[in-house]
Write a structure and sequence with these properties.
heterodimer; A: 230 residues; mainly alpha; MetI-like fold; 10 helices; 0% strand; globular; B: 384 residues; alpha+beta; Rossmann fold; OB fold (Dihydrolipoamide Acetyltransferase, E2P); 6-stranded mixed β-sheet; 5-stranded antiparallel β-sheet; 9 helices; 20 strands
Amino acid sequence: MLPLLDSERQALWLSLSVALRSVAFSLPLAIAVAWLLTRRRFPGRTLFDATVHLPLVLPPVVVGYLLLLLFGARGPLGGWLDRNLGIQLVFTRAGAALATAVMSFPLMVRAIRISLEHADVGLEDAARTLGAGPLDRFATITLPLMLPGILAGAVTAFAAGLGEFGAVITFVSNIPGETRTLPLALYTALQTPDGDASAARLALISFSLGVGGLLFAEALARSARRRLGS
Amino acid sequence: MLEVRAALRRGEFALDVAFAAPTPGVLALFGRSGSGKTTLLHTIAGLLTPTSGRIALDGQVYFETGRRPVPPERRRIGCVFQEGRLFPHRSVLGNLRYGERRAPSDSRRIRSDDVIDLLGLRELLARRPHQLSGGERHRVAIGRALLSQPRLLLLDEPLAAQDLARRAELLPYLERLCRELRVPIVYVSHQFDEVARLATHGVLLEQGAVVAEGDVGALSRSRALREIVGPDEVGAVVEGEIESVAGERARIRIGGETIEVACPGAAPGLHARLHLKARDGVLALEPAAGSVAAQVLHGKVAALEPDAAQSLLVDVDVGGALLLVRVPGLDPVAAQLRPGSAVALWVNSANARAFPTSRAAGAAPPRAATSGGHAPAASPPRAD
């Protein structure tokens, strides 16, 4: 184990906690959006699809800026949240999680959507003839068939979330112990004289986490596929 | 009674049908591929909604123009799809239980132990669908549909995707199913041999419309069917009663006459069905010498009409049972046949085969009514 400075350990834990929160928050939403986009035809669907994918093509700084406009203290949503629920997002951990969630959302939706497109609608029809209503069908047939995609999406989003930089630093700034996640700590180390060793350690941690996440996602997907026999 | 009137369009294809069939019984939907059999089946199940018509079973209305259709999950119509559609994430037992758990507990007449034995599934219960052969998968799909305690069971070409060996394996299961369970069955097929063995009533579809319907005997002799199956497969289906059994062969009483043919699974007292193809019979004018042989039926010509290749297709009435025989134009008998002529029908017993059926198509023992939900059950409901 590498000897880590307190600030580095703090950044690692913060990154893990932010990424985990972002996944927990966006997963149910991503499942719902993936389902809507694959199984429902509604007016404005193309526009909705494009909006969901926007974070993939926008510069992360733009996403951070838009979040500031919306959730800033004087933004329409930020002001409301603060007044009614006492939730502040700017300069907080929760805000970092939100920025991370928005950035990794399209990745998650894509993974879930692919598994949903492969899930045979005929199986849901079969469940209908066996007496299963809409919610029952979703819980007992659709959801289990989506599981490989959900797992893959969650792990990929988690791994990607560990490294989110632009949107986070724009939206919640770079506050040690509150919003300074791994990539932000790495950036800070590079800006500091004598920070080279710290930067290298942080880079190595980020690298291991990323590779580990991808391998884990692959293993999960493989075991899920084997269980479904395809 | 199953009543179906339905009109619907799917792209270029239009379905427009109306027929009624007695219940319980096995109704065959027969026709070429693309004639609308599966579409019709899915319409009965409720997976497709017609633009107009009426679908009702034993007085319970599932669909009627202007009313909100009963959704499939509340129709209690079991459906065995062509591709099986087993749930890949559940074991065989998990698949079987899926429908059973969702059936109202006061309707549990079909017990899982019985179904598992009837379909030979006991060894497979712990397996996953992808570990099953095609025939096994279909048996599980049939079992799953049966355990949902259906008021009606729909089977979509359960034998179509199977090779010959699998067909031979599955067909006896289907026969037992039709014979032992009192659930009405609608059976889709494009093989008339299967229809002849399993069905009591048939509907013949062509391009989304009904071109013939009736009991299987009448349907087998209809002109519409002859056109679909082609000259080699033309024949007639008649019902008889098994008198005695010797090995694989049985003596079967048909219209007061007795004939000995192969009849696997026969037992004295059971009813049997003979599917005699027109090419497997030879006619001789009475009185003919030696015509007391075991392969001869005596009757008279009911009607005759010219057939392809200068031959005659003759309707022979054997004590009320109508059979079809083709007489080649070169046969000297052909010129002498007239309606009413007394004839001896020699059956080519190497090809002819009979199959035991339920006690009698028309005289089924009374069963607990399944409509309305207030009828007394034949046996106490079981919760297992």
